[in-house]
Amino acid sequence: MNVFVRQGMRAAASLGMLGFWGGLWMAGRRYPSEYDWRYMTISSLVYADRNPDGCQWAWGGLILCALGGLCWTALLVRDFRREGARRRPVGISALGSGYLCMMCCALLPERLLRVAKGHEMLALSAFFGLCIGMMQLTFQAAERRLRTRSFPGGARVYAGCLAGFALSPILLAGVAQTYVSHALPELPWVGLEWRARGVPVYLSFAFWEWTTCVVFSAYTVILSLAQQGDAR
Questions:
Q1: Would you say the C-alpha torsion 177, 181, 182, 183 has a positive or negative sign?
Q2: Among residues 203, 175, 202, which one has the least CA distance to residue 189?
Q3: CA-CA distance, 46 to 103, in Å (whole number)?
Q4: Which residues of the chain have pLDDT under 70?
Q5: Spacing of C-alpha 119 from chain mean position
Q6: 150 Cβ partners below 8 Å, 6+ apart?
Q7: Which are the contacts of 18, defined by CB distance < 8 A and separation ≥ 6?
């Protein structure tokens, strides 16, 4: 494979994340009313009935993110085959499936999805695929690097902690939602009403959803750059 093509495919993940955040930023700018990311979920940006003038930007960002992720996944598969690995790691398969579901969710109109709540199912599948893939790839990369440096206490323990940190916003979101459903059952679904009532931001599902996106974006960029450094 041409060296310039390989470099471009390695950079695709980072460029895809740039497109993702750029698309969401433009979608937020075109939102018909005030958009406060701390109390408003990403879904408010991507659906035409809520954001008619900006939803195309949000979907475009998702498509660019998925394209970049698929290019990166394809390079990961090629590198493992070149190393003579008999079986593709589960993390790479999960990552590719997650990006593919993201692409389908963005490109397929609702009328073509015969399954009820098809878009929601694709979005959840994309999330779980990316989550599993990111955790395993992080664990493998961290373990490999820490083992070469004779890290005290065992490389696997520290690699596991680093991989598990990616899940921390999701766990905190679950804790927050459990508390709200029991202590504040009268609250509607998260929105600007929460801010008006003075509900702390750390109880907002939207806050943890955006935080999860930031964490996953950082892990994606770091992992793709680490792969680029290993290839040199």
A1: positive
A2: 203
A3: 14
A4: 1-6, 83-88, 109-116, 148-154, 227-232
A5: 16
A6: none
A7: none
